[in-house]
Amino acid sequence: MAVEALPSNALRRPRRSRPTGHSAASNGVVYVVAAVVIVLMLAPVAYIVIGGFRTNSQITDSPAGFPAPWVAKNYVDVLTGGLFWRLVGNSLIVGLLTTLGVVVLGLMASFAIARYEYRLRGAMYALFAAGLMFPVTVAITPLYIVVKNLGLTNTLAGVILPQIAFGLPTTIIILVPFLRAIPVEIQEAAEIDGASRLGFFWRMVVPLSLPGVVTVGILAFIGSWNGYLLPLFILNNPSTFTLPLGVQQFSSQYSVDTARVLAFTSLSMLPALIFFSIFQRRIVGGLTGAVKG
Amino acid sequence: MTVREQLPTGRSSGPRSTTGGGVTSPLPVARRRSTGSWRSRLEIAVLTGPALAVFLLFVIFPVLAAAYYGFYRWAGYGVPTQFVGLQNYVTIVQDPTFLAALGHNTVIVVLSLVLQGPIAVLLALLLNRKMRGQTLIRVLIFIPYVISEVVVGTGWSLILQTSGALNSALQAVGLGALKVDWLANPDVAIWTLMGIITWKYVGFAVILFLAGLQGIPEELTEAASIDGATFWQIQRRITLPLLGPTLRIWAFLSVIGALQLFDLVYIIWGQYVASTAGTSTMATYLVVNGRNAGSYGYGNAVAVVLFVISLIVALVYQRFVLRRDTEGALTGKGR
């Protein structure tokens, strides 16, 4: 492209405005639609966040109004109380260990399925793929009994292990084609250099599949962070509650204190939002299937 | 072996990996070592063992156990002894509450497709153009999908209370006549639920479709526009047909998700209100009448019914709709 010849302001956005002849008016329509949609999408979220800055009497007087004056007390109360941080801690432990488990176990199994020839390979892939058909909802009651028999009710492990298991199908379905796409030539080169197949796995596959792994890990983490049904069954002791359970308990316990519930709720969505905005490129990229490293 | 066909066929359905470059690898990837060598077997066992163990114990076994417990009346303690045959299933099929829940699920499935599909396609087409703030807009649309159902549900139930923000806002702008009890009124509640579902999940559809749109070569639309096609002609004749595989995958995920809807309904309507407000689903019925009622055998039977319905829908869909997409538009599933 002969970009050099263009004036400097065109230089900055040569890829943005493609010369397909969109008129300024039609672009205007797009922006208006986009603006309306975004307002609709964000209004409820904004209501929760802003509502947290009001007092209960403000909310009763005018449920849809703005804070007048803005009060930070609700947020300060939530942030200085121990409950919120305990819930965040539990959710973090569950989320991180779930992600770790899903990634490690999923990567290992995917590697075997993708790059070894053995008789049960097809059956194994089909078995994991069939797991997509079993959401937690269907298996929840016997799953609870399994966890109970292992003595893991009211422990975080009782949530983590099933979450790993239910995260494996998606992980393997995403990673297997990814690992198959690594050229045989690289493997041959590694073998010529004396690497075993497991050595090849550690030195080559893990780094090369990192983009796919990141996508899978993010999906697992967000799924775990937002998970409700499984913790609801497994965790009955409030000290083990994860954030979703805590939010629900808090909102029923303080149902008269609407402002505090709003502050609590908006703080509890913050971590997921931060996490998402850091990694959004990966998520979108992972869904495209064209993960760019 | 027929299962073999389900394996992704190497490069064709796999993600366009950056590592692939121009090198084409022969299809069956690994044949370096002879299959039977003990070392190779040991490696396979080490690699797949942990995943298989966890998966069998926490996914496959519970699902099979559900089928077994479904034949018993059982309170969840000890070994189930009171075999009741198909009695649980007879009760389910005759329970008007369950049939109502099934009806709600059907409505939710249909309305999810009808509402979210067109909205999402339209938005994706509009947002697919190169524009300022593209990334920001995409992120913002995706936000409701990322927030947990519990948070979303708590927030919405506060907004939608009779004396909540929505009714108060309607009053303020002079539309007081439109004030309704959004949550408890059985004529309105299912639409309230659909509104919330659309709000929460449409962003996922948009992102999926945008991803699909990126796979359509620009040359096609460029050639068409040189030939004088208008923007909407291009979308209708070129983009939409090529987006077909993505649309069909999305519809599949949406249907399965709608059949198994639980969190939102349970959070917003709770275990008692959902059925009177007309928003109960099979999954909330399962939890309320199984675990909460202490009838674990019965709950398992409901789970089996829910699973069989999902399975039939999935198989029919794959047989008649997805079969066309031999290439598989997406390798990643939504959740």
UniProtKB/TrEMBL annotation, chain A:
InterPro entries: MetI-like, MetI-like_sf. It is a multi-pass membrane protein. Residues 88-279 form the ABC transmembrane type-1 domain. CDD domains: TM_PBP2. Keywords: Cell membrane, Membrane, Transmembrane, Transmembrane helix, Transport. GO terms for biological process: transmembrane transport. One of its GO terms (cellular component) is plasma membrane. The keyword Calcium does not apply. Residues 1-23 are annotated as: Disordered. The chain crosses the membrane at residues 28-50, 92-113, 125-147, 159-179, 200-222, 259-279. It is found in: Cell membrane. It comes from the Bacteria. Belongs to the binding-protein-dependent transport system permease family. This is Carbohydrate ABC transporter permease. It comes from Amnibacterium setariae.
From TrEMBL, chain B:
CDD domains: TM_PBP2 (cd06261). It is found in: Cell membrane. It is a multi-pass membrane protein. The keyword Transcription regulation does not apply. SUPFAM superfamilies: MetI-like. Gene3D superfamilies: MetI-like. GO terms for biological process: transmembrane transport. InterPro entries: MetI-like (IPR000515), MetI-like_sf (IPR035906), UgpAE/MalFG_permease (IPR050809). The keyword Transcription does not apply. Its main location: membrane. Belongs to the binding-protein-dependent transport system permease family. This is Sugar ABC transporter permease. The lineage of its organism: Bacteria, Bacillati, Actinomycetota, Actinomycetes, Micrococcales.
